[in-house]
Each structure stands twice: as C-alpha cells, then as structure tokens.
Amino acid sequence: MDTQKHISSDVAFSSSVKEIQTRKGSRRSYARVEERGGWATAITPDLKDFIEKQISIFMATANKNCQPYIQHRGGPPGFLRVIDETTLGFADYVGNRQYITQGNLVDNDKAQLFLIDYGSRSRVKIWGRASVVEGNTALIDQLMPKDYQARPEQVILFHVEAWDANCPQHIPLRFEADEVLKSIESRDARIKELEAEIAMLKSAKSFVVQ
C-alpha cells in the first residue's frame, strides 16, 4: 500500500525528476515549495485575469502509446474562459479535422495548457485533465466569443489540478500587432495636435508682430 503523501507539484515532479533535481542541486528549493503544499490548485483572481487576456494558447496531450502532441488554439481575449475556480473551457472551432487532440483524450485525459504573454514576459503552465463535449449547444453558446468569425464544433473543458508561473528569463519581449498599431495611431494623433498648436502659436505671433 502506498502511504506516501502526494502533493500538487507531483503532477510534474516524478521520482525521476526529483532524483535529477537532487543530483543537480535544485531539490532543496523545490522541497521547500512542497513543504508549503506544492503548487496552487485553484484559479486565483490574478490567474483568471491573465487567462482571459490570452489570444493564443498551447495544449499538450499524449496518446495511449505516450506519444505527445501539442495543439495551438487562438481567438479574441476571453476565448479561453474561466468557468469556476478549477475549470476552464473554450469553444473548439472546425479546423483541419485531424482530431488528434480529441483522439488522445479518448485514450488519456491528462493534459497541459501552456500560456505565454510576450508583452509582459509572463508564462503559466497548467496541469489537469481535459474532456471534449459534443452536442451541447448551450455550452457552445456560452463559450463562443461574440462576433468571432469561426465555426464552433464542440467544447473542450479543462479541469485544473495544479499550476505554476515561471520567471521571465529568456522570454523575448514582443508586442501584438494590434497593440503596436494602436500606439502608432495614438502617437500620430498627438503629433497632429502638437502641429496644430504650433501653427496656431506661429499665427498668433505673426499677428502680434504685425
């Protein structure tokens, strides 16, 4: 009988991982995390805010032969929705119809979400179990982004078991094109305002001199 206490970070820190951490000198710091209960298992307000700002995510699954697969999913901010403190969901749009992720989840419901925000140089890893919900139009309507040009086929629900936020080291600083365009438009508008003020001041000065 296994009497060893399991904690949330064990979802990633297997015995093999812990042995390598010991050999390479990082085990002590992670052991302290485990002493405090491991990683968070519920979605906090800060994590909810981060999740619902994402427009691009990656979802990892593996089939019964342990062959891994990573699938990209995207949409407008909020397309990945927090349903409750341990459940995420998104409308799964019609795509290339390979159904690799869905087939993997039939064999093995363990999954991971990888979220990265280049603008804030932040990344979050979420471990859990996922399932595909077909034929539930009410749930599709609930999760489908308004006015988004895509055809929803089904829903993927993700049940959170643990999550961890990484440091920003080596994350390149990048900005979304829409954000850059808005900044440029704002700058150009301000330049026009200043040019108008300068022209008005020059006109006023010319009038005084005359």
Per-chain topology:
Blueprint: H1 15-24, H2 27-35, H3 45-51, E1 56-62, E2 68-74, E3 81-84, E4 87-93, H4 100-107, E5 110-117, E6 122-133, H5 137-143, E7 152-166, H6 177-209
Antiparallel strand pairs: 1-2, 1-5, 3-4, 4-7, 5-6, 6-7
Spatial strand sequence of the major β-sheet? 2-1-5-6-7-4-3
Helix content: 25-40%
Main beta sheet:
7 strands, antiparallel
**Span between N and C termini?**
100 Å
- Count every beta strand, where a strand is a DSSP E run of 2 or more residues: 7
Please indicate the percent range of residues in DSSP E strands (runs of 2 or more). Answer: 25-35%
Shape: extended
In round numbers, the mean pLDDT is 91
With helices defined by DSSP (H or I, 4 residues minimum), what is the helix count? 6
Give the uncertain stretches in residue-range form.
none
User: Over all CA atoms, what is the radius of gyration?
Assistant: 24 Å
Give me the strand/helix succession. HHHEEEEHEEHEH
Structural class: alpha+beta
In words, what does this structure look like?
The protein is α+β, with helices and mostly antiparallel strands and 210 residues long. It has helices at residues 15-24, 27-35, 45-51, 100-107, 137-143, 177-209, and strands spanning 56-62, 68-74, 81-84, 87-93, 110-117, 122-133, 152-166. A 7-stranded antiparallel beta sheet has the order 2-1-5-6-7-4-3. Strand 1 and strand 2 form a beta hairpin. The longest helix has 33 residues, at 177-209. The mean pLDDT is 91.
Highlighted features:
210 residues; alpha+beta; 7-stranded antiparallel β-sheet; 6 helices; 35% helix; 29% strand
